[in-house]
């Protein structure tokens, strides 16, 4: 127990020292995006000659459809464009030989392909990818909401089922904000930030990389470097999955949907204080969303929102320590 406490203190000291010399947020995002682009170009260069692959389409009205596509270049979305506008607009995820596959990830071999939508008979994998994507969007908003006035450290995003009532994003804010709890206006400001990204219909670009690349991407955050090492150790291939949305690069524990424009109703509902953790005061931001193809009446939405305000508990929530500073209810920070 004593060793664990010392480790946490050292981590917090390391994080504080790193924050003191940390470049501005815009510079960090630019550097991360540049490393992502460089690795993306390198991987595309692995296929200098155009090689053809056969993609056997599966699904209602598609069985028996065979597409001839380009190895390492064509994606499930490319295949959808050879079908109908419905498939392009409504597809959120894909199954490649039975494996969940991001819609924007290149195909590397002949395969069977099923395009997944929110209205499938079993939408579970799409719903989970959507929930994960909404959490990624929330993290992107939090990372830029405070400008360069305060540091924001995104922690490992907890994987929670859709039935939990809210998607989650764990975060450590600048120590100067340890006594702050957002007002309703602050939450509305975060919601507006997310809605702007949704309106831009940005692509979530997937890129599977070696740990060394991911460590370079997240060279300014020890927290993310540890997450890279953990994810790589659990993956049989020893790789990790990155996504880029605009200039925001993130680690993901599973596939995301194709683009932000698939989100419709979206609201940031709460920011709960979890207590002191390895990197400082851990908080859990939560939100609620429905995809474009599924809408809720405002009375139903209000009930869903009330549920989404309640803390979603996971096994990783740390207990609050005695002596921590109580938050000031209703205090507003201008974003």
UniProtKB/TrEMBL annotation:
One of its GO terms (cellular component) is mitochondrion. CDD domains: TGS_ThrRS. It is found in: Mitochondrion. Keywords: Mitochondrion, Ribonucleoprotein, Ribosomal protein. InterPro entries: Beta-grasp_dom_sf, Pro-tRNA_synthetase, Thr/Ala-tRNA-synth_IIc_edit. Residues 316-335 are annotated as: Disordered. GO terms for molecular function: nucleotide binding; RNA binding. Signal peptide: none annotated. Belongs to the mitochondrion-specific ribosomal protein mL39 family. PANTHER family: LARGE RIBOSOMAL SUBUNIT PROTEIN ML39 (PTHR42753:SF9), MITOCHONDRIAL RIBOSOME PROTEIN L39/PROLYL-TRNA LIGASE FAMILY MEMBER (PTHR42753). This is Large ribosomal subunit protein mL39.
